[in-house]
Amino acid sequence: MGSAGVQIVCVALGVLGLIGGIVCCAIPRWKVSSFTGQNIVTAQETEEGLWMTCVVQSTGQQQCKSYESLLVLPSDLQAARAMTIISCMVTSLAILILFAGADFTTCVENEDIKPKISLVAGIALLVSGLLLIIPVSWFANNIISNFYNPLVAQKMELGTCIFIGWAAGVLLILAGGLLMCFSRAKSGSSGGTAKYYGNSASAPAANKNYV
Questions:
Q1: What pLDDT sits at residue 210?
Q2: Structural contact between residues 168 and 16, judged by C-beta atoms closer than 8 angstroms
Q3: Are 51 and 63 spatial neighbours (Cβ–Cβ below 8 Å)?
Q4: Is 47 helix (H, G, I), strand (E, B) or coil?
Q5: E strand spans, 40-155
Q6: pLDDT confidence of 110, banded at 50, 70, 90?
Q7: CB atoms within 10 A of CB 119
Q8: Do 78 and 70 meet the contact criterion of CB atoms below 8 Å apart?
Q9: Quick one: which of 80, 89, 70 has its CA closest to 50?
C-alpha cells in the first residue's frame, strides 16, 4: 500500500484537477475571436463557453448571453457539458473515497480494506481525467478545423479553458495512476507458517520397526 505522503500528493492533485474542471465548466473562455487575416476589428472580442457567449468591448465592458435552447447546440458542446459535469462529480466522489481509505485518516480501521478503497479512488480519478480531456480535445479539434476552413468567415482560436482543461485532466490522470500503482495490499504472512509433519510422524514408526 502507498505511503501517506503519496496519498496526500494525490489528494492535492485531485483538488487541483477539480478546481480546473470547475473553472472550465463555469468560465466562457473555450474559444475566443481571432484577429488574423481579414479580422482586423479589435473593438470587441467574442468569447464562447459551455453555457453562454460573451462580447467584451475594448473599454472593458462585457455583455453575456446564455444559450437559448439545448436542442440547437452542436453535438460537441452538448457532450462537453455532460462530460465536464460528470468529471467534476466523479472527482469529488473520488477525493472523498480517498480520504476514507487513506493512511492518514482513521475513517476505516481495517487495514486490509484500505488498499482496495484507495484503488477504487485511483480508478475514479483516472476516469474523471479522461472525461475531462476527451471533450476539451474534441472541442479544440473542431476549433482548429474551423480555423483552417476557408468557408468559415469568423475565425476562432483556442481559449484559456482549453489549456486549463488539458492541465486538469493530466493532473487527475497522474493522481489516479499514482494511487493505482501504490495501492497494493500487503503480502500476508500466513504462507510462511505452513508446518510439515510427514518426517516427524514417520520417525517414531520407523524406530518401532527396529526395536
A1: 47
A2: yes
A3: no
A4: strand
A5: 44-48, 52-57, 62-66
A6: confident
A7: 22
A8: yes
A9: 80
* 113 φ, ψ (degrees, to nearest 5): -90, -25
**Minimum mean pLDDT range among 48-52, 53-57, 85-89, 101-105:** 101-105
Look-up: residue for cell 484503488?
119
* CATH code of the domain occupying 4-28+74-151+160-185: 1.20.140.150
Domain residue extents for the chain: 4-28+74-151+160-185
Helices 160-182, 75-101: inter-axial angle, 10-degree rounding: 40
Please state whether beta strands 31-33 and 52-57 pair in parallel, antiparallel, or not at all (unpaired).
unpaired
pLDDT digits (tens, 9 = 90+) for 21-40: 999 999 999 998 877 655 55
> Tell me, what amino acid is at 168?
A
Q: List the one residue out of 188, 187, 189, 180 whose CA is nearest residue 117.
A: 180
